[in-house]
Structures
1.
Amino acid sequence: MQTAYSREQLEEMARSVPVWFHSIDLGQGVLTNGMRTAPHLARATEELRLPDLLGKSVLDVNAWDGFFSFEAERRGARRVVALDHYMWAMDQAEHFRYWKECKSRGITPQPYHTMPYYRPDELPGKAGFTMARQALQSRVEDVVGDFMEMDLSGLGSFDVVLYLGSLYHMRDPLRALERLATVTGELAVIETEAVELPMYEQRAFCEFFETNELNGDVSNWWAPNEKALAGLCRAAGFQRVEIVSGAPERWSRRGLRAAAGGMLRRLSPGKKETGPRVVRYRAVAHAWKCGEHLSDHGHSSDPDSLQIVSNIQSIYDRLPAEGRLRIVIRGANHFYFSDDGALLMLRSVLVQARA
Ligand SMILES: C[S@@+](CC[C@H](N)C(=O)[O-])C[C@H]1O[C@@H](n2cnc3c(N)ncnc32)[C@H](O)[C@@H]1O
């Protein structure tokens, strides 16, 4: 990577920020020491199944240090806007000290925005984004604003909107998605904490966290299951939704253990009733404002795969409707049926069709 700074200068820039959330490659072999590690971010980026961003306008809502904004720019986006306010307003070193202390003492933290370390006039938590943008000589624009409260008309509309790690932090997720739909021109990529209750996949529900039940964090409110996530997006005004990274395989060992554990507990008299165990995971939805795909990245063009796809399509067409819910294909690739029955190929997602 070409950079205007020496390795020593970049190391100094990385060190000058007390807390990094994202591990960002600043060039010359210098990586910021983020809580989200580089391998974790690489895997998360792959799971987003981003479309071709060349020439696109991209809005990254709740960008924090901006890893995904810089990644969109690196992929050739014409314009990228990083928007945030919440973590940018925090002295993050103080915040994480407080959060860890509450966790170790088993007490519920106060809402973070009521703490003295929440300083929206100074934006101490924006240092990482600002420093990374300087180091990368990036043209990513920044907007300081609460996406839930700000006037969205001034923001305009973007071809692709990223809404990553945010939905479960919202008190009102349906309203959040409605606001997201108003700024989305083509596609919103929504990544969120999600939940599955084995055996209840066909019901749409969200788990509610009154205080800090999820990860000791009082800023977590809701985790949808796959069906609720897709339904929320449609109810918010998106025309078409694909869950591109869904729940772990239904009959995986984890899912089976959770389901069997729940049943056993209910059948064992005298055993403390803890309720059914849920499977937690991160889901990714592609929510489209238009019926068409932005690109055909989900389709395979190699002849072997096309033959396999056509064989599977014909098996699928002959199945009774109730047999079409999930099909897992063993081997190198998994396949996905879109709502209208077209067969798409994905790399790592198990198949879901017509819920
Ligand atoms: C888990 S981080 C995700 C950051 C980044 N998008 C990513 O995926 O790595 C949550 C983001 O949501 C923002 N946010 C906005 N409103 C929030 C709220 N009420 N509670 C918690 N986080 C909020 C935070 O500032 C933070 O950037």
2.
Amino acid sequence: MEQETIQYRPNLASCTPVVLLEPKRIQHHLQPPRSVPASSALGTALKRGHSHSNTSSVSSSKGGPVKRNKLGIRNYDYVEFYVGSAKSVAYWHVTALGFHLEGYLGPETGVRDRVSYFLRQNRLKLVITSPLQPEAYELHHYVTKHGLGVKRWALEVEDVEYAFQHAVDHGGIPVQTPHRLEDDHGYVSEASLKVYDDTELMLVNHDHYSGIFRPGFEAASHPWAKQSLSVGLQQIDHVVGNVRENEMELWSNYLDRVLDFEDFIYFGPGDISTRYSALLSKVVVSKDKRIKNPINEPYEGLKKSQIEEYLEHFQGSGVQHIAISTQNILHTIQALRSRGVEFIDVPEDYYRRLYEQNEKLPMDQKITEDLSLLQSYGILCDHEGDGYLLQLFTKPIGDRPTFFYEIIQRRNGAEGFGQGNFQALFESIEREQERRGNL
Ligand SMILES: [Fe+2]
């Protein structure tokens, strides 16, 4: 495939690249498919969908041999949020979550219609973007409809053209075909595919770029750029989608087929439910398990589930939460709480049960952290085989009850998602829903 290069020019009205198309293989997308109607995307995926056998009970493929991903996916790369006020949201990530502001794009760098802040903490990379001018209609439309949300999340791949072509050949819905963004520091290659309504899944490679993030960004000179020290957030552990009824199979099949992923765990009817509500969940993973994508959909219950509340306020399917790993969750949560980050409350009897469970375990499987500290910081723990995971969920970070973060630490090879905490967690979320009048 002939890849086109875009020379970055500071006076460009927008940093959004022109969508360039390979002429033979996807000619039917000669008009940039930036706004593919949901119905046509779903129809395409449904026609090509296939069924999976493990659809009736909890199952797992863990323990099998590690396989290479056919697309050459290395790891998660960045996540871009569209928000109403990028400066405020970036400032909160710096002062409350310990990110460093490394790059900035906006009128001062020659881009007139939007601003973007590039934030980093260890291997975590975020971009926070807001529209400035009416012509940034795509941003305005997203923020008006969804509020603060994840517009795109990126996978770093060895070869963007190869990965994109493999994805499209296996049913991937193209949004941006492969192109290069270039300036004096080299070039960044990227392409994107559709996933969950207005969300884009980026394929990127920046092996040949030495500048800040990508062409168009310059070093940030804001006085709050390094306002706070890192709280030990390391990298993305998993990215979770909330989708409408009957979409979970559709999108899990899509990701399996398009990205060469495979089903990892399935939670069917009755596996995750409270007195009032229920949900279905399937986790798909890359074959080396570096990329993990749980997908939730609502299931019938007496009252409105947290997934339904999300879908109603996000106005559709999208990214529900991003889990971020830490190597010392006690330090991370203590630091985040001291900076005013709000977390979901854990039920009072949760720790009584955790103490009892831990007592019964053999010495080599006991929790090594001080349980009284876990309790005082409100951290959840879930045992799994010889290992366990520690996790905690923030309250929604924006104004709508939609996107939130999870902080997670895995011990001794734990690969799950806190299944044992679902009951306590969802009852806690329902109490929050009730306070908002949304249960
Ligand atoms: Fe999670």
3.
Amino acid sequence: MNDKIEVFCSIPWEDLIIYADGGYSVCTSSERIDYANESNSHLMWNSEAVRNHRANILEGKREGVCKKCSYKTINNATPYGKEIEKTTFLKNPKTIAISPTEKCNLNCFMCGFTRKYHGKNRMAEGEELSVSFMENLAESYFSDLETLNSNCAGEIFLYTYLLDFIRILKEFKPKTVITSTSGSVMVGERTWEEVLSVHDKISFSVDSFDRNLHQTIRGFDIGKLLKNLEIVREIKKNNKIELGFNAVIMKMTIPGLFDFVQRAVEDHGAEFISFQNVFDFESESFSKEKRWRIFYNNQIK
Ligand SMILES: C[S@@+](CC[C@H](N)C(=O)[O-])C[C@H]1O[C@@H](n2cnc3c(N)ncnc32)[C@H](O)[C@@H]1O
Ligand code: SF4
């Protein structure tokens, strides 16, 4: 094997992804590598499952979740093939993407969680991480993190332990903390100030500023989002937080993309826009895979 590791996937050396059910992974696939609880959440990064996963990659073996990875189509190479330390035990992840809660008040057209909770009461049954799980994790990793994405699944404002989470972030603040919201929960100025005091970047998830299209995709009136946006822009005058938008690319939003970008920047103060779900692979372009169904406007339910 070449000494220079250039085709390996470096994600398991940098990223820890934690789901609201305690499942975790060191891969962008949603498959859990193992599960943790409040007593061992601080051990996830070097758990036996994670170390075995890294060892397999170091030995050039494609095992477990790697077998299904789309990047296999490109000569084993991955866009994440950075130089890595050839060890399975690592001090700290660079980034953590966490889902404190899966509770959500919406059932967005294209969201995978809409599918997961189809037929269930997501506000009541949505999974959540406990305060002790979060404390344990934060004490071990947060202060040395480059980036924490604090909300990957449900709606952060509906997290039962939001105030505890903010307290923990104040104590163990990672270098950069980012979050996203649908902007659908009517939040008071005071709560916004608290949330923004521990974040560096916030994105509103909005795929179109067209009132009807937004209602179709997200299921609520965009007026609510605009009210929340107004509060954030007011707070931003005295706070260095970066404001942006996340837009999922779908066939129905493409004709309006130019207008979307223009309005995001000129009318709504966007400093960044991130487009989701736009990646392609040589042999799988527009194939039957789930992510392409969203592009074709197939509602997830
Ligand atoms: C699952 S949501 C959780 C955070 C929050 N509820 C929100 O909507 O911003 C996280 C991000 O995933 C995006 N998203 C939803 N469905 C998606 C899909 N099918 N593919 C890619 N991103 C998607 C949302 O627009 C949002 O920006
Ligand atoms: S608001 Fe976010 S988590 Fe909730 S359904 Fe929509 S995209 Fe999914």
